[in-house]
Design goal:
Blueprint (H helix, E strand, L loop, with lengths): L10 H19 L3 H6 L10 H9 L7 H22 L1 H22 L9 H11 L11 H20 L6 H19 L9
Helix pairs in contact: 1-4, 3-5, 4-5, 4-6, 5-6, 5-8, 6-7, 6-8, 7-8
Length: about 190
């Protein structure tokens, strides 16, 4: 027992979740003012530098503790395995690409909707995880099932249910996870980290 120690095993994912926690706490303490200013992308003026910053930072803010906890659990469950397999730099790329893509699509296609939260990144991680057993020339059945269940569910809910959940972010995150997962795991392309 004396040799047990806590390790910072997944620096990018742990830091990302920590920033999300701080942003959510700030949003709660300021009555949502900090969230709207820094962690929510909406159709604001393109003359404002904050508009461009929010294309990335909206993934840190959450509508409340339930929203944060739902995303944090998936991030902490899937993220460390992905970071170990692909490395910290590649996980940063997944987060940044997903944030920018969901931020831009929301800004252009849904001008009346504010977007915050890490659920697009969660969906990218979910789909990316299904590629862990991928080999060249094969399509994992887990990938097909996850794509059909998760992305199909989001498409159906986006059409049939009007709620405050951004199905667009989920779908975009899933597509990004699919493209990156395929690209990074083609035969001869994956190299172990370490």
């Amino acid at each position: 027992m004396k040799n047990l120690r806590i390790t910072f095993n997944s620096p990018v994912v742990l830091s990302f979740v920590g920033i999300c926690f701080i942003a959510t706490l700030a949003g709660v303490l300021t009555g949502g003012v900090s969230t709207q200013l820094l962690f929510l992308t909406w159709h604001s003026s393109l003359r404002s530098p904050l508009t461009y910053l929010r294309f990335f930072t909206h993934v840190f803010g959450h509508a409340g503790w339930d929203h944060f906890m739902g995303n944090a659990i998936y991030l902490l469950l899937l993220g460390p395995m992905l970071e170990e397999k692909y490395g910290s730099e590649k996980i940063i790329k997944v987060i940044a690409i997903t944030a920018l893509a969901t931020g831009l699509i929301n800004y252009i296609c849904f001008p009346q909707v504010g977007l915050c939260g890490a659920s697009g990144i969660v969906f990218a991680f979910i789909i990316l995880t299904s590629f862990t057993g991928f080999r060249g020339g094969e399509i994992p059945l887990t990938f097909i099932l996850i794509a059909v269940i998760f992305i199909g569910q989001q498409v159906l809910e986006g059409i049939a249910i009007q709620d405050n959940i951004s199905n667009m972010a989920h779908i975009v995150g899933g597509v990004i996870g699919s493209v990156i997962g395929y690209k990074w795991n083609r035969k001869g392309k994956i190299r172990p980290v370490g």
